[in-house]
Write a structure and sequence with these properties.
The chain is an alpha/beta fold. The protein folds into two domains: 241 residues, Periplasmic binding protein-like II (D-Maltodextrin-Binding Protein, domain 2); 202 residues, D-Maltodextrin-Binding Protein, domain 2 (3-Layer(aba) Sandwich), CATH 3.40.190. It contains 18 helices and twelve strands. A hairpin with a 2-residue loop joins strand 4 and strand 5.
């Protein structure tokens, strides 16, 4: 999945406010009736088409799809739809835009919505549902999500008890990048717990290498990598229920639990013995571009860098990303066994604005294990993964994609979507970023969290 969607969606929330918000629910009800065009489906007797024949003969029909996924990733998307056309006779009219997050709102307000849109964050989905133009997912889609995805994923596609949108692609943020060769040379092992990770950091520091390197500069979005750190820490220290309460402002942003989690992060990022390898002191984290944050690992100047799976695209050309390569990643360890295996991440959701048979058929295809494997095979260069448990990990070309899929498919995994992307834009794309930057450069935990709490909109 493309790296740009992880932040532009949050920046666009301001533009969607005029559509109104709907609350999120977790019920399974509200699925739409399944439509059919009648006739004999072209997919009768064809492998992989079994679930699509119920929609009848869709020959000559078309489905418009609007998305933020652009070249070069677009080619793999379109290739993965070829089986759908073979099965149904319908074609897919694909439109990508680098202004998607703003333009989808404009189009919906103007009554010019596409048949289907790939929504990159739950907050935007709720807002679009509030327009009254998103249609409930048909039963075959709900059945697929129940079978192939966890309840947490279905919950993010559900608004006010009605299920609207199946998950599509995904990313994992709960990773720490490292150099397998550096670890082997020094006899270091991948840590299993947070305490093990701190002990390893102390061991690395004694060699004269700074254990950690980091960068949070990202233009207008400077500070976002620190928000991810805190979100991961809250999940590990206090679990998914407290995380949800915090994200939804059911507890204050400066609750003692959140302060404890941020101090846990500070034990690494604000520790002058630990950072900032290859760049300077603690303050240098704020001025180091997030794209560059982990690169000192290749020079032996630091050993660890917490960043998402999509960071694989930031390593220089020729870098071998694998378990025995130049760099790889491991799961960010937990602080206890109380909350399973928390996974922070992102993804897209398939929202429909029409319930014609061909639209429902395409929704059904995209929510299936069949499409997930078609998409994996259409992406030989790697850079895509799904939380669909029917995805055969061997079909993923990239070792980091395989690791991401294994992490998402782990029975102990408890997935939570990026928190700042779900908060009001004044916080999630504003004060949260700003105050985490100030915190890195010397502001106290209590002041940073109080300032964010004070910025939360009253309505």
């Amino acid at each position: 999945m493309r790296t740009r969607t992880f932040r532009t969606a949050a920046l666009a929330v301001v533009a969607v406010a005029g559509l109104g918000l709907a609350g999120c629910g977790s019920d399974d009800g509200g699925s739409a009736d399944t439509q059919t065009a009648g006739g004999t489906s072209p997919g009768e007797g064809v492998d992989g088409c079994e679930q699509l024949t119920q929609f009848g003969d869709l020959t000559g029909k078309s489905v418009s799809v609007y998305t933020s996924i652009l070249p070069p990733e677009q080619a793999a998307q379109e290739q993965s739809y070829e089986l759908f056309t073979k099965c149904t006779g319908a074609k897919v009219d694909y439109e990508g835009s680098d202004q998607f997050e703003t333009q989808i709102v404009v189009r919906v307000k103007a009554g010019n919505a596409p048949d289907i849109a790939y929504i990159p964050q739950p907050g935007l989905l709720k807002t679009l549902v509030g327009s009254g133009q998103v249609v409930a997912a048909p039963q075959p889609v709900a059945d697929n999500v129940d079978k192939w995805f966890g309840e947490d994923w279905k919950g993010y596609g559900t608004v006010d008890g009605t299920f609207y949108a199946a998950p599509l692609g995904a990313s994992v943020k709960s990773f720490v990048w490292y150099s397998p060769s550096m670890f082997k040379k020094n006899g270091w092992t991948v840590p299993e717990t947070w305490d093990d990770m701190l002990k390893l950091s102390d061991e690395i520091e004694k060699t004269g290498i700074k254990p950690w390197c980091a960068g949070i500069e990202s233009g207008e979005a400077t500070g976002w990598p620190t928000t991810d750190w805190l979100e991961d820490a809250v999940l590990r220290e206090d679990g998914p229920d407290v995380y949800d309460q915090w994200v939804n402002h059911e507890i204050p942003f400066n609750d003692d639990k959140i302060a404890t989690a941020l101090d846990l992060v500070g034990g690494i990022l604000k520790n002058p013995d630990y950072v900032n390898g290859g760049f300077g002191d603690v303050d240098s984290i704020a001025t180091t571009a997030f794209q560059d944050g982990g690169l000192p690992i290749l020079k032996g100047q630091c050993a660890l860098h917490r960043q998402a799976s999509f960071y694989a695209a930031q390593w220089p050309e020729g870098t071998k990303v694998s378990e025995d390569g130049d760099v790889f990643a491991f799961y960010l360890p937990t602080t206890s066994d109380d909350y399973g295996k928390p996974v922070l991440g992102g993804g897209e959701f398939v929202a429909a604005f029409d319930d014609r048979p061909e639209v429902q058929a395409f929704q059904t295809y995209l929510s299936s294990d069949v499409w997930a494997n078609e998409k994996a095979k259409a992406t030989p260069g790697g850079g895509w993964v799904s939380a669909n448990t029917g995805l055969d990990i061997d079909n993923l070309a990239s070792p980091i994609d395989q690791l991401s899929a294994e992490t998402l498919q782990d029975p102990e995994a408890v997935f939570r979507f990026d928190g700042s992307d779900q908060m009001p834009s004044a916080v999630g794309a504003g004060s949260f970023w700003k105050e985490m930057t100030a915190w890195i450069t010397g502001e106290s935990t209590s002041d940073a969290l109080k300032n964010i709490e004070d910025s939360w909109p009253s309505s």
